[in-house]
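Action item from last week, closing it out:
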Amino acid sequence: MDWFKNPTVNGNKVWNAGNDGSGSGLDADTLDGYHANGSNDRPYGHIPTIESDGVMEVGRYIDFHNDNNGKHDFSTRLQSTGNYGNEVNLPSASGTLALINDVNNYYWANVKISTSSSTTTSPTFSNVYLGNSLYLNTRGSNSIYNGPNDSANGVGGPLNNLVFSSWYGVSFTTSCAGLTYTNKNAVSINCRTG
């Protein structure tokens, strides 16, 4: 045993408050061999930690598991697809945020939202799919969109400022039950022949 400048026991260094900690080579600063991730470290192969600025650096994706049976690689995966600096900002009010990407039923959460600087103006949406092949844009066989002309042109003339585009025809009916035109045409427009 040597208790002078670098004390050892049977040739092994004696650890103390002056030579342990980060960078010492001890496994005491790791968990199962993994170091905690700092804000300037590469996140792969590190344990995520919340830094003093409130940021947690993680890897390319996070897997969530609905159960603990180990039969599935993941139930839900939150994944990054590139170094684009994208941000996901959750609502500032309580509620549920649903991002739907169900390829089996062909639902896609690709709604573009534009907000006004005025707090009294509602957000505007574009490229919205309402289901049953109805779009709020100029694509698709059935859609509603802004027309090119701020005018009231007659049949056969240029499109006006609000356009209802139908593959074949447009029906107007009533939602009130038990009436003559409930779920029947009260007014019908043939969009092909006028």
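Closing note: Residues 101-121 have pLDDT under 50 and may be disordered.
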